[in-house]
């Protein structure tokens, strides 16, 4: 029986981390609070999404449909809980955070994820 290789979706998180690093370094000369807020906002998007991706691509093949669906539900639930918990911790403990920069960085990471995932998955076909 042939085994289906999972697509290289881990590359999405690596691309996001690279873009986030460049974004934070670009903001560092302006202020460390902006650079740190961008880094934290990006990580709040990247870490839960990486959790979801790991769960969603844990199983492959038509016979694993039930496991795939259950893994996707677990992945999405975990992603929502992680995102909520990380935002709560940051707003509770990090008084220096710049909310606008945090949310803009979070949104930019979503765009980077969508674009890089589309490109990687189209290339994998």
Sheet with the most strands, sense and barrel status: none
- Report the total helices: 4
Quick one: overall form?
A: flat
Which band does the percent of strand residues land in? under 5%
Radius of gyration: 17 Å
Order of helices and strands: HHHH
Number of strands: 0
Q: For the residues shown, what is the average pLDDT?
A: 92
Structural class: mainly alpha
- Range of helix content: over 70%
- Distance from N terminus to C terminus (CA atoms, Å) equals 20 Å
The low-confidence runs, each spanning 5 or more residues with pLDDT under 50, are none
Structure description:
This protein has 125 residues and is an all-alpha fold. 78% of the residues lie in helices and 0% in strands. The protein has 4 helices and no strands. The longest helix has 29 residues, at 65-93. The chain starts with 9 loop residues before the first helix and ends with a helix. The model has no long low-confidence stretch (mean pLDDT 92).
